[in-house]
Amino acid sequence: MTTPSLAAEDAVPARPAPAGRSPGRLMWRRFRRDRAGVVSACVVAFFFLAALAAPLISWGYGKDPYTTYGLNEGGLLNEYGYPVAPDGGVSGRFWFGIEPTLGRDVLTQLLYGIRTSLLIAAAATVLCVLTGILVGVTAGYAGGRTDYLLGRFIDLLLAFPQQLSFVAFTPVVYALFVSPGKETPTSLRVVTLIIVLWVLGWMGLARLLRGQVLSLREREFVEAARVTGASTWRIVSRELLPNLWTPILVQATLMLPAMVTAEAGLSFIGVGIVEPTPDWGRMFANGAKYYESDITYIFFPGIAMILFVVAFNLLGDSLRDAFDPRTKR
Amino acid sequence: MLRFLVRRVLGAAVIVLLISAITFFLFFALPSQPALMSCGKNCTPDALAVINRNLGLDEPVPVQYWHYVVGVFAGRDLTVGHCPAPCLGYSFSNQQPVWDTIMDRFPTTLSITLGAAAVFLVAGVGLGMIAAAFRGTWVDKVVSSLSLLGHSLQVYFLGVVALAVLVSGLHWLDNPEYHPITEDPVKWFTGMIIPWLVLSVIFVANYTRMTRSQMVEQLAEDHVRAARAKGLRRRTVFFRYAWRGAMTPIVTLFGIDLGSLFGGAIITETTFSLHGLGRLAVTSVSETDLPTLMAVMLVGCTAIVVANIVVDAAYAVIDPRVRLA
To answer: What InterPro entries does UniProt report for this protein, alphabetically (chain B) (predicted)?
Structure first.
């Protein structure tokens, strides 16, 4: 859809009935008119691009997150290990300053940290959404005993204290993969965090979808499909799922930032990603250590995270509005 | 009501039992040698085996779990001595029965939770009602934007900033610290203010949003319009009619939040170095102190399950349409 068509629409009030637009196109039109939505979508895209292009940016910027610049060169850190330059050592060379004690570059630390956290959160979100769809649609469509059992299973998982379980079970999963006394490789830590976030993260979406399917199941078009002899798979994939994309997309948009903050929280506590792999959450742990002498350091990951979460929440709201124009905020 | 309560309590007991069993079995995957700690320096495999036998660690896991459950209700005899009724085992890292450690830490978590909950409930519902009353005006917009911002903040960022500003910067308060309320209520209060405020800023957003949208929805309901049409004052309708209907989802949210906070506000306690249940969980993870970790999990899931029952019972009180079967 290009600008001329929009202009023409405004200019001609009494025109023949417009050509049929698919719900997707209607949604896209409404979304494009929502300025907050478009801006937040750009911010979200920026974060993903920055995370994807972290090696490229780091190459162009000439620094990496592992080199301890402050230790390798004199004059960057003082005798207590804090940056000599004011504001956490922010300068033309180190745009976001340098890290106290080790003297690593904060900008690349943050970029790679966002990369790690986003990778984990995105993977966990995708798994949660898939599981949520599978369980929710099965429970709603099958009904009966299947529904009851799945419902009780969800109840059980929901009664696990979430944060506590993350903390308690992360080492359990590590132990399942690595024999005791051996170092846990980073890739395994990433996989473990994804698993832990996944196992206790999909229930909300499953419940929501179950409810939706319960009401959709009784609608005429599903009944019609059933009467004409459509297979269960066809009904689910052609009749039910197209009607479920809205809640799925909206919930996924709200789930991802929650996963990012949960992952960051785990690394903050010290059970997530460990040194030297850069991680968004661990920057907060370092910031909490250094705040009395170098408060600047924590602001870069902090502001970035606020921007990220705000943008995602606004995007979720805009998506919901675009999909369902009846909801008023 | 009684039938409902009995049924729900039984269901809750089953869930707690299942969760404790799952947790118990999962923890056996962890490399843990409690016997090593009590064995001393000149530890031989034989001595280790003896201790393991004394601790009952050589038995199959289901048997051990059975002993654990019996111990919770009836107490049990451990090698270190008798462990009275709510026996959650003995922690070798803390050198005391787990129950004592939990009781030692629980008041801190309780103080954080109850104080913060009071602040964020009152402030959140209040702000939400103000926003609903002034819907569409700048007041509404300011409240909505602030709640979005608060919702996007994290304890591990806001908490550190609060410490930097209020403690090291302005010297208005001391570092958060727990003092028992029974000893010194003033110190208890001042020691908890920062965690309460920080938690509240973050939690308030959900309550504001939900109260606002619920109030807006309720104000459009027929019975509310009918009350207005009968000539009742706007204020009466707002507070008596709409408010009551708007509260049910708030109660649910409050129950969920309270339940999960009771199990240990892990990140809050870590940020402010408060020694509550959450912190206990983190230290027991790093020390692989399984009995303690198990106990914190048990407390956490009991809190959630109990909160759920209270919420459902409260529903029936608030909303007469809800029938408890």
So the answer is: BPD_transp_1_N, MetI-like, MetI-like_sf
Phi, psi of B166 (to 5 degrees): -80, -30
Tokens of B33: 């040698």
Is A1 inside a domain boundary? Answer: no
* CA–CA separation, B48 and B33 (whole Å): 9
d(CA B291, CA B50): 20
Please check whether residue A275 is in contact with residue A184, taking contact to mean a CB–CB distance below 8 angstroms: no
ipTM value of the model?
0.81
- Give the length of chain A: 329
Contact A163 B16 (CB under 8 A): no
* A120 is a domain residue: yes
Q: Which of A161, A175, A292 is nearest residue B30 as measured by Cβ atoms?
A: A175
**Residue B108 near chain A (CB below 8 Å):** no
Which helix (H) or strand (E) segment holds residue A7: the answer is helix A3-11
Tokens describing residue B151: 């919702």
Q: Which candidate in A165, A166, A167, A203 is best for mutational testing of the B interface (most B CBs within 10 A)?
A: A167
Domain of A299, CATH number, reads 1.10.3720.10
Could you tell me which of B180, B209, B211, B189 has the C-alpha nearest to residue B116? B189
Contacts B305 to A, Cβ<8 Å: 159
B148 chain-A contacts, CB cut-off 8 A: 310, 313-314
Spatial contact of A112 and A278, defined as CB atoms under 8 Å apart? yes
DSSP class of residue A243? G
Nearest-CA distance B183 → chain A (Å) = 30
Cis, bond preceding A276 (omega within 30 deg of 0): yes
**Minimal-distance CA residue of chain B relative to A314:** B148
What does the pLDDT read at residue A2?
43
Record the pTM: 0.83
Helices A35-52 and A54-61: crossing angle, nearest 10°? 70
Residue A135 has pLDDT above 90, yes or no: yes
In a domain, A14, yes or no: no
Q: What are phi and psi of A291, to 5 degrees?
A: -60, -30
B161 close to A (CB below 8 A) = yes
Q: Which domains does chain B have, with CATH numbers?
A: 2-83 (no CATH), 98-318 (1.10.3720.10)
Residue A130, token pair as written in the block: 């898939």
What is the C-alpha separation between A6 and B72, in angstroms, rounded?
A: 71
Contact at CB, B15 and A159, closer than 8 angstroms: yes
Residue range A269-321, pLDDT digits in tens? 888 887 788 888 888 888 888 877 777 888 888 889 999 998 988 888 888 87
What is the domain range of residue A305?
Answer: 50-323
Q: Using a CB-CB distance cutoff of 8 angstroms, which residues of chain B are in contact with residue A326?
A: none
Q: What is the pLDDT of residues A23-68, one digit of tens each?
A: 777 778 887 777 888 888 899 899 999 888 888 888 877 777 777 7
Interface test with A, best of B10, B23, B156, B297 (most A CBs within 10 A): B156
Count of the separate structural domains present in chain A: 1
